[in-house]
Specification:
This protein is an alpha/beta fold. It has helices spanning 2-18, 20-33, 38-41, 53-62, 68-71, 75-97, 119-133, 144-152, 164-172, 205-214, 228-237, 241-244, 274-277, 309-320, 325-330; strands at residues 110-115, 137-142, 159-163, 182-187, 189-195, 217-221, 248-251, 267-273, 284-288, 297-303, 333-335. 39% of the residues are buried.
Length: 336
């Protein structure tokens, strides 16, 4: 444990140097959250995935962006902030594994069906959103088409934050108020790697194909995942089907994904919507796949016909405001 702890601390700077996207997200958290009191200083936590909250605070302290007196920490405490994700990793994983169901919501909760593509951005602004709405947010997160079945089964909700086509289907079936659809953001497919990865350039089709074929395993969605149309398009155009069969780790099957054992000079690749790839702990985000393979996914909001319309409209107004912009950008999403 101690050896792993020391390794994490010694490699943090290297990780920040190599992972430009993490540095950009931490910088963005500071840009939207800088202030002159402890409460505002610590709101960096609402603009980063939960597993980057403490590193961000420590990072800001070391750069002198947040006065140590403001956040009440010493440089030793900042070091603790930087290494805390290692110690807290198991607890965070366990917390994420607990799936919330809207049927368990309490009276007065604002109930949301949320696409996994919006999980991380919403987590960053949840506290502000709850203040704007005046109610706690309870979110059931999953693939849009899978959540559709729960909506069709009659589960009441205030807001659905799902892919545009699912919102349209639910309007047609009387589950979402006609005319309430609001397009919030679009997201494309990105790539991350884990393990002993060399310098990888995925900006061209040839470079991307080489990187995929060199991976020890490749994680991707099948079935109803929103990234599937882009992934199918990519795999078809690059002729990757047969050559990768034995190394594919399928996601979206309802079964836990296996954890491949990586040897020296081996790396694993994860290809999915950027907003689901970027927050992944322990993975290095490489960027988006080339545009010619992309089929952008539009995430939209809709008001439930059986929920509190006033609460729903307040939440959607917040999500359309500039208060949500930085969280979307930090997770690779663009405004519609």
């Amino acid at each position: 444990m101690l050896l792993q702890f020391v390794r994490y601390a010694l490699n943090l700077d290297l990780h920040l140097r190599r992972d430009a996207s993490l540095r950009e997200r931490i910088d963005a958290s500071y840009d939207v959250a800088r202030g002159d009191n402890c409460g505002e200083a610590l709101t960096v936590s609402t603009h980063l995935p939960c597993d980057h909250v403490l590193p961000a605070i420590g990072y800001h302290v070391f750069l002198g962006r947040i006065d140590m007196k403001i956040v009440g920490v010493t440089r030793l405490s900042a070091v603790a902030c930087l290494v805390m994700p290692f110690l807290a990793g198991a607890a965070l994983a366990q917390e994420r594994a607990a799936q919330v169901k809207l049927a368990e919501a309490k009276a007065g909760d604002a109930r949301l069906f949320v696409s996994g593509a919006l999980r991380a951005p919403l987590a960053m602004v949840q506290e502000q959103a709850e203040k704007a709405v005046g109610h706690p947010l309870v979110m059931e997160v999953g693939e849009s088409r899978r959540l559709q079945s729960e909506i069709e089964a009659g589960q009441p909700f205030e807001v659905a934050l799902l892919t545009g086509p699912v919102i349209d289907d639910m309007i047609a079936k009387g589950k979402i108020v006609p005319g309430s659809r609001v397009d919030l953001a679009a997201v494309r497919v990105g790539v991350a790697v884990k393990g002993d990865a060399p310098e990888i350039d995925i900006r061209t089709p040839d470079g991307l194909k080489k990187a995929i074929l060199s991976a020890a395993s490749v994680r991707r969605f099948y079935g109803v995942g929103a990234s599937v149309p882009t992934l199918d398009n990519l795999f078809t155009k690059l002729d990757l089907g047969d050559s990768l069969k034995s190394r594919i780790v399928p996601l979206g099957t309802g079964q836990p994904a296996p954890e491949p054992v990586l040897g020296p000079s081996q790396y694993e690749m994860y290809i999915n919507l950027a907003s689901e790839v970027i927050p992944m702990t322990g993975w290095t985000y490489l960027g988006l796949i080339p545009e010619q393979f992309q089929i952008p996914v539009v995430l939209s909001a809709g008001v439930g016909t059986a929920g509190d319309a006033k609460v729903a409209q307040a939440l959607i107004a917040f999500l359309r405001s500039h208060a949500f912009d930085a969280a979307l950008k930090a997770n690779g999403m663009t405004r519609k």
